Each structure stands twice: as structure tokens, then as C-alpha cells.
Amino acid sequence: MIGSVQRALRLLEAVGTHRDGAPAKQLAREAGLPLPTAYHLLRTLTHEGYLRRENGVFHFGAAAENLTAAPGVRGGPRPTSVADSLGHWRDVIGTPVYCAVYCDGEIELIAVADAPDTPAVEEWASFRENAHAHAIGQCLLAQLDERAREDHLDRHPVRPLTRYSVRDRATLLERLRTLRRGEPVIERQEYALGTVCAAIPVTAGATIAAMAISVPLDREDRLLPAVEQLRGEVASLLRSFVFSISI
After folding, report:
1. pLDDT > 70 in the chain, percent
2. pLDDT given for residue 68 in this prediction
């Protein structure tokens, strides 16, 4: 692995979590980098057009936005390749794969890839209204700032769906606060009995997104290896700059 490239990507990921931009010191802390290293990389990324600096904070620049543009088109999103990618990962990993985004204050499940021998979880209770009860919803809520998270829970109160579900708002918020940046969110039978799920955050520009997998409870030993495999697949595709999410 090329360390400088990895460090630059960590900074871009950090910038993507701040809709209003962030200063160098904060980005360095979130990316886990020494401040002098962060300054050097931020200057390089700004010079190349991937970032722009305004009023002391860094935002995505035109070059970063163009990474998700269609060939020959600048400044607009290209058609999504999510469905094709999910189908490939379903076959490689051997589990259903889900993709969701947080858009206009709501959870949007934009693609699911499953197969007869690896069926997806049945949506018996609204995914949108019960984000607190499933892994992909919790993963998206964890990426929101405090105000947006509280607003979401005001509109969609926490209520247990199974005997394993998080019981109340305070417990959910504490769980989300203790998640380390980028780590998988694990959910065991909180949404559907007999099923365990894991979700990972996905950085795609300013989009708040997540990918998830599910396995039957009797195959729980497959969950962590499978989600780590998914993380590797997603990271590889993002590095190739051919993956975009169109909302």
C-alpha cells in the first residue's frame, strides 16, 4: 500500500463528513494524522483542485466533484452503478448486500442484491421509520451531526421491534456515540428474528451512505469476515474512481 495515498484519502473522507467544511486541525485529528503531514497533503489536494479553502475551512473542489461525473460531463452525477456493484458483491461474498443513503432527512434504501439461496431480510416494518432497529439505519444515524440525529428521532421515535431491539432513545444515542469512526455497526435480531446484520459507512462525496449485509443467526460466524470482505471490495472500487451514488 502507498501510505501517502492512503493518508490523502483519509483526509478526503474527513472533508466529506462536514457539509460546511472543516479547518485543517480538525481534519488532521479526524484522519489520525500529524498536523504538518495534514497541512502538506491539504495544500497538495487544494493545488490539484480536489479541495478548496474558504474562510479557513476546506471543502471539496471541482476535481473531486468531477470524479462522479459521466465521461465528457463535468459537474453532474452519472448514472448509478450501485446495482451492478451490489450484484457482484453478493456473488463474491455470498450474502445479500444492501445500500442506503440519508437524503432530505430520511433513510432511503436505494438498492438490494440477493438470490434465492441468500434472500434479503423481508421489510416487515418500514426501514425508513425504524432506522434505530437495523444495522444500516444505525450506521447512517451515526454519521449525522447531533442536531440532524435528534431531529430524525423526534420524527421517528425509538420503539422496540423485537425483544432484542434497543429499548429507548437514550440507549440508542449512547450506542451511536461509542461507535468508532469507520467501524462496522453490528445488529443481532433487533429488526428480524433469526437474522444478524452488519453495516459500514461509505464516503461518496457529501453523500451520507452505508452498505450492509445480513446472514441467518445460525451462520453468525460468517458475519464479521463477510463485512470485512465487503469493506475491502468497496474501498477497492472507490479507489478506482468508478463508483458513484445518484440520489
Report:
1. 87
2. 57
The pLDDT value given to residue 205: 65
What contacts 187, CB < 8 A, 6 or more positions away? 133, 134, 135, 138, 196, 197, 198, 199
DSSP string, the chain: --HHHHHHHHHHHHHHT-TT-B-HHHHHHHHT--HHHHHHHHHHHHHTTSEEEETTEEEE-HHHHHTTSPTT--SSPPPP-HHHHHHHHHHHHSS-EEEEEEETTEEEEEEEE-BTTBPPPP-SS-TTTTGGGSHHHHHHHHHS-HHHHHHHHHHS----SSTTS--SHHHHHHHHHHPPTTPPEEEESSSSTTEEEEEEEEEETTEEEEEEEEEEGGGGGGHHHHHHHHHHHHHHHHHTT------
The mean pLDDT of the chain is 85
Q: Work out the angle between the directed axes of helices 135-143 and 146-155 (0-180°, nearest 10).
A: 140
CA distance to 172, 176, 243, per residue, from 150 (Å): 11, 12, 31
Give residue 170's pLDDT.
96
Q: Which residues pair with 208 in a beta bridge?
A: 102, 203
pTM: 0.65
Per-residue model confidence (pLDDT) at position 1:
60
| Amino acid (one-letter) located at 127 | F
Cell 483542485 identifies what position?
49
